[in-house]
Amino acid sequence: MKHTPKPTKQYLVTSVARLEPNPELLINILARVPEGLIRYDTLCQRIQLDRQTRDQATSERVVRSGEWWYDTTRLSAEDFEERQQWVKPVFPDMNAAGIFQQDTIAERELARQEQLATLTDPAAAQRLLGRMQATPGYTTVDALCPDDDDKALLESLLDVEILRKFDRIIFDPLRIGSKTIRHLAAQHRLEPLRQHLIALLETAEGHTLSQEQIATQFDANVLKELLSLPDFTLFNVKVKAKPYNIPWVRLNSADAETALIVATDAVRTSWDKLLTLCGDMLRPDAKDGKTTRQKVIARTYTVGIAAKRIGVRQQTLEHAINEGRIEAFTDPEGTMRLPVDAVEGAYNNPEYAEHITAFETLTPRDISIVINMGYQSVRRRLQKAGFTRSDPRWGQIRGRWNLPDTYREFREILKINTEMLRAQRESMRVEEEERLAEERRIQDEMREELRARLVAAFPTWQHEERADQRIYLRVGPPNSGKTHKALEALVAAGSGWYLAPLRLLAFEIFDRLNQQGVPCNLLTGEEHIEVVGATITAATVEMFNPHASGECVIIDEAQMLADADRGWAWTRALMEAEAPEIHVIGPEPARELIERMANAAAIPLEIVQHERLSPIKIADKHWPLVEMPPRTILVAFSRAMVLSLKTELERNKRSVSVVYGNLPPEVRRKQAERFATSETDICIATDAVGMGLNLPADYVCFYEVEKYDGRTTRPLTPAEVQQIGGRAGRYGLSTIGEIGATNKADLRFIRKVYHEPAATLTHARVAPT
After folding, report:
1. How many whole angstroms separate alpha carbon 756 and alpha carbon 234?
2. Which residues, in sequence order, are bridge partners of residue 529?
3. Res 662 pLDDT > 80
4. Cα–Cα distance, 192 to 284 (Å, whole number)
5. Which of 199, 444, 716, 756 has CB atoms 3.0–4.6 Å from 720's, for a disulfide?
6. pLDDT tens-digit readout, 530-540
7. Furthest-apart CA pair in the chain: how many Å?
8. Among 339, 414, 303, which residue's Cα sits nearest to residue 406?
């Protein structure tokens, strides 16, 4: 059975931060450390120890010795000196509130005694534990259990975790912690290798060998662990060139001066042996040296320089060396060298060089340049040949697909063709720059021509205040807050105009501002209402007086610039307004035209992008007249059709408002108000409803998808569908926004056209001079 720990005790409740040092705290920490001692740096993980306060935690029970603290009730001074050499204690588990998560070693020892009493043979188990007590806290199975009966008893103690096993070591968890046993197991594993390295060094002259010699017999990570053991010392032999220091290893017990002399002589003698491997040929850029080392260097290439000489990548040459295609050796300083005669032989003899260049990898791009074939065609050929995941080597494709016979020829053709391609690209770049310069010249001429035409059409647009003006182009779909933000700017400016395409829309702004306590006049072709103290006027665009512009002018529905009949009024307002601040409101298709006009007039332009404030979608199914949902704007395109639909809907007991262009202003206002106040549930309107009227409609339903534009009957454009349909789901007035039609065919048309991009406006209209 396994021991169940007792509930933990709270000795000190502290903050989540590190603990304040005191003797009681250190006693309780060490009481839970199996080894009975702990290092300064380990304590600092949770205790605020520094050089001034570390002695505050000592007491008669806890003694500090150097960087260690140990429990005198569990360790003598001699025990401490011995154990500090090999133990790796850890801080006992403690939660954020300062509560220890384990019992003390003494409490766990009492629980162990209770647990032993429940075993089949407590006395035998106690004898085995007594044998373990005579060890440092760990041992091997064979050392602890010389006969099979003891081994069976050991298994029972391991089952209940009185003793534990890690790797091939048995240990007492009340004397050895987890980190210590891992360290001991690593040392135990390294022991045969340690003995092997000691034996190698003992047989070597001066008990020393170069690290390079030793590295051939050990894994790199294992060697690193071995050299960290106290048995061995690492030292350097200085040389005059890189790497400047050559690492050697000696036994720690060996004489350091003797080992250094032996290592230095060995490095010097090694150069003498290498001279016979170099041959007599000197590098073209080298002079013969006086020392053996200088002579070897003059007769050899390093791998990097040799690769450049042969004309391959360094990794290619290294591969050829590993495959034995060219001679190479490593000098005493650890540098790999190639004899000059071997490198020059490859440089002067292309056929010999092919033994090396066969390992050079080629990119599909380089192959395509050499054989004048498209990149994708080369990729397909390589895939057919089996090169699907890596680039091919020269030796694998040499002679295929009209490739040359040698790699040197391949590189020469690649260089020539690459230079030709570079020249072609440079020529194309120059031609493109010339083309762009010509386009800029033409645009400048067109701009000057446009400016001249503007002067002719609008003689007053170049007034003195023009340089101080700024146009704010507010672009976005219906119901995106464009007009709202522009009106805020108008009110802040204190004087100016709001210019609308419809009398009804001008009245709506007139009414809204006055209700907000901002005095506002109304000026349309049919009405003129002056309000006392008003410095702002809401007007139809034709009534605008640019010479009394005030501080701010709003030009709404700017896409009307292109309207054949009324566009002149928007153009005049934009070009002749004298206000310092002009807010132009329109959809995306009007952006480019207005930018061009502002550019031509040299008026600073700032574009403000708006996004729709409420969601909108196309209806899933059509709405017949008999199923028309309430809060719907039903759209038709003639007065006769509007009145016909009104009659039919009222016959079906539906309450109806109508809004169309020729209604008297007062009647039109009352009709819109009836729908806005839910007195009627359907508003039948012409496309005038698309010009910014704020009606609380959840739905916009097209009864017709064709209109007569004064010349011909045609389908609605994407811009018209988007502008009219966008009146559904008005932000702040409605929570639903759907666009539909009264039959399936028209609904399909609406769904298609609504998502098409609207045509960009290209021309603004002007009135005849």
Report:
1. 77
2. 522
3. no
4. 51
5. 716
6. 999 999 999 99
7. 124
8. 414
Q: Which stretch, 227-231, 277-281, 314-318, 752-756, has highest mean pLDDT?
A: 752-756
User: Which one-letter amino acid corresponds to residue 375?
Assistant: Y
Query: Can you spell out the DSSP letters for 730-763?
Result: -TTT-S--EEEESSHHHHHHHHHHHTSPPPPP--
Q: Which two tokens stand for residue 444?
A: 């400048």
Rounded Cα–Cα distance for residues 106 and 110 (Å): 6
Closest CA to 178 of 193, 192, 167, 189: 167
Report in angstroms the alpha-carbon separations of 769 from 457, 459, 763, 764.
Answer: 7, 11, 17, 15
Alpha-carbon gap, residue 212 to 210, rounded angstroms? 5
- List, for residues 152-197, the tens digit of each pLDDT value: 888 889 989 999 999 889 999 999 999 999 888 888 888 888 899 9
Burial 277-298 (b: 16+ CB within 10 A, else e): ebeebbbeeeeeeeebbebbbb
Q: Which residue has the tokens 């260089």?
A: 415
C-alpha to C-alpha distance for 657 and 672, rounded to whole angstroms: 7
3-state SS, residue 239: coil
Least confident of 598-602, 705-709, 755-759: 598-602
DSSP state of 99: -
Unique residue bearing structure tokens 């895939």: 383
Question: 208-219: b or e for each residue (b if 16 or more CB lie within 10 Å)?
Answer: bbbbeebeeebe
| Rounded Cα–Cα distance for residues 281 and 309 (Å) | 15
Judge contact between 719 and 587, C-beta under 8 A: yes
Range 650-672 burial, b when 16+ CB lie within 10 A, else e: eeeebebbbbbeebebeebbebb
Helices (H) and strands (E) in the chain, counts: 28, 28
Nearest to 64 by CA among 104, 83, 37: 37
Phi, psi of 501 (to 5 degrees): -80, -20
Q: pLDDT (tens digit, 9 = 90+) per residue, 323-335? A: 888 888 888 777 8
- Contacts by 442-450 with C-beta closer than 8 Å and gap 24+? 447/599, 447/600, 450/596, 450/600
CB atoms within 10 A of CB 381: 18
Distance (Å, whole) CA 88 – CA 180? 4
Looking at the chain, how many residues does it have?
Answer: 769
The helix or strand, by DSSP H or E, that contains position 36, with its residue range, turns out to be none
Q: What is the pLDDT of residue 8?
A: 41
Structure confidence at residue 52 (pLDDT):
60
The set of residues, in sequence order, having a beta carbon less than 8 Å from that of 234 and lying 6+ positions away, is: 211, 227, 247, 248, 249
67-92 residues labelled b (16+ CB within 10 A) or e (exposed): ebbbbbebbeeeebeebbeebbbbbb
Contacts of residue 353, Cβ cutoff 8 Å, sequence gap at least 6: 310, 311, 346, 347, 406, 407, 408
